[in-house]
Design brief:
alpha/beta; 7 strands; UDP-N-acetylmuramoyl-L-alanine:D-glutamate ligase
Length: about 200
Amino acid sequence: MATDGSGPALLSLGSINVDVQFRIEHWPDAGDTVDVQRATESAHARGMSVVLDPAPPEHMEKRLYPLADILTPNALEAQRLSGRAVASAEDAGAAAAVLRERGTSAVVIKLQNGGCVVATAQGWRHFTAVPVPVVDTTDAGDGFTGALAVALLEGRRIDQAALMGTAAAAIAVGGYGAQPSYPDRSRLDGMFQLLQEANARSPG
């Protein structure tokens, strides 16, 4: 996504699908990472930030880490990328530190229980989800990254953006299909407020 130049600009690469000035349908082999590199380099040259969802993780080459301002793997992807088991928030914090050492400014790890861990230069924090009925998890991770990107474009801090992503995923798993299960803004804002209140009461 990008703005018209009057506000923050951002390129969001979700699950190796790029929809801005570039579109990459898939990553069938490691050679295609050159397209991702070109997209991210061009985005930075235009003053845009880059959010990268590193799926599939086997194609996440080390040269791509410094090109991603924010990396958004799920727990399994973070485990494969870091070489560390990710079975808890503490594990995710440790795995995120490994990924940040490769040059990524921030890492947001999507946890299996619906929460997430946000890691920056200031350390990491666990944000919890609220219990929701799970119907279909298809593309909930993409919904997370998309909502996170929108929140960043609105000028929100990364912790607030991560909660917005968590809110989108929490709603998405309650319906069938990918895009049909994504929430409208009213539902998204309602879930975001609920998560803010829940995490304000929790030590994280």
